[in-house]
């Protein structure tokens, strides 16, 4: 057997392009006669524009036009035309639609000029007069008006129905814990800002370079909103500079850039500033309450997890936050609730593993509190309450190696050496704490198509509309394709991020490896079959009596397994077929039967060491072991990077990231990377990733479950638990900043 690329560590095929600056991003594409748009943002959170004076702006030499709600061209008037593939229920925001202001930072004008600096300067001259109304951005003030969203968001499971009687069981439990938890609002802050460059191709045709996790999502959005035929709108976004969910939905700069380009009949670029990015979607605010009841033998008797999360006034943003508490452990009495309350902020957005790290911060902190009260080891408590099936839906798991993750993670970490007593481990002036938590995330496959094209020079191209948001999709698809035809990876080109390519959902939800990967494999296998048939059909073919199971594809040869000297070259096989190339397009779909009978999740066990200097209130995360069960791993190198990135994100959630609202003004005040802290190299020490062996034949044909998101889940909880172990202080509001530690 030849070594397969599948399962082997491979460097990113797009790495050289990225590190040399040769990979173009949405705001870098250019065109002759490119005009630049700059957005003017609302200074109030709620009310209406009474007057908008653009005279001074228009007078600046080089200004082409200033668009406002008063002169914006007519576009689709139905709000549902603005719905996109992943929009929550409600009425999507429409930029420059009318004089109404529904959140601070809402775009109120677009200044278009010959260059960026002129546009930015002229934007400062647009005078907007408002009539402000009282706004409310404080979730605590509106929680009494919380409601269960009347319409379920597509693809998001609402909390499962209660089982048993959690209230009675809680009352009867000899050992209980109950507390409120909260994490700060977080903004995604990818390196690449929201940006769109619209290239005017003439005849009402446009090519759009958009910062988006799904080119076809932007394409259908534009065609619906502007009433354009699909053939006239091509969205091309080959590279994404990080997104974490912020690029799932088309953002207003896309609308504005397309509107301006169509109106001016020229190419237009609109790039948002970092501070404007703090007026976009965010990980929602939420007030969580967890109550657990257990017997003295550490068996859970009752679980209750309630959440009130904020949403905007116009959309009901939903994510699976409390559901994890109902499926992770064996327990007969469970109630979970998830309500929304409207605030005068923009709609929250999916952010890496939306819901899971939030909900599991509360649940896994509560489990730690319970372990402490019971006097049992936190890992023991989890193993004692291990759920073999998903009791919240009564479905089997397609696979679940969480037990092995606990065991392997604990072993590697050296967990058995932990002194359970808080404040018992010390070195110099630093208190040392060891904490752990469980993580879970959905393992999904979504219907996706791909095309494979083999040419006589032995080159294979695979293509799919999905995006590579920096996760390594180019690389893993290249590996899968190369294996299918026994080619070196250098012979394979993968094309992504183009609405004209075979259909794909947005890249998100950790489903892309399983979905696009399966589609690419199907298409390549189709090519392989066609190729084999023509090789066998060759005059005097050495493969005349063979079947496809008895040949290998390797080194541009199709050879008998039993005798590799009997072979047909790829070029001869193509020649025999009388074609220049063999092409196949295939669609991979998840199994309906599997979906009916099973649930599929990835799992993790996170072990953390923190060192706390109590005098300075400083917390350092000095060691993390994350043991992950995510099915087959296509590329251990890019997979490890994904988990590391998620873990670092979790460190940010635990210690740094906090969008600070000023409720008087109704906006986030720390809207830049100087004041909104993300982890930097100095915050990141030793992170070890373990992939637990997990055999899964049901989630996807590849055995892949996906791992773009699981790395963040559980990390913040494990850190908070470690801080408790170090200091004896239970901090239930993230981030754990100095003031909370001292
Ligand atoms: Mo992810 S939050 O589905 O990009």
UniProtKB/TrEMBL annotation:
InterPro entries: Ald_Oxase/Xan_DH_a/b, Ald_Oxase/Xan_DH_a/b_sf, Ald_Oxase/xanthine_DH-like, AldOxase/xan_DH_MoCoBD1, AldOxase/xan_DH_MoCoBD2, AldOxase/xan_DH_Mopterin-bd_sf. GO terms for molecular function: iron ion binding; oxidoreductase activity. Residues 20-134 form the Aldehyde oxidase/xanthine dehydrogenase a/b hammerhead domain. Signal peptide: none annotated. Gene3D superfamilies: Aldehyde oxidase/xanthine dehydrogenase, a/b hammerhead, Aldehyde oxidase/xanthine dehydrogenase, molybdopterin binding domain. Transmembrane segments: none annotated. This is Xanthine dehydrogenase family protein molybdopterin-binding subunit. It comes from Muricoccus nepalensis.
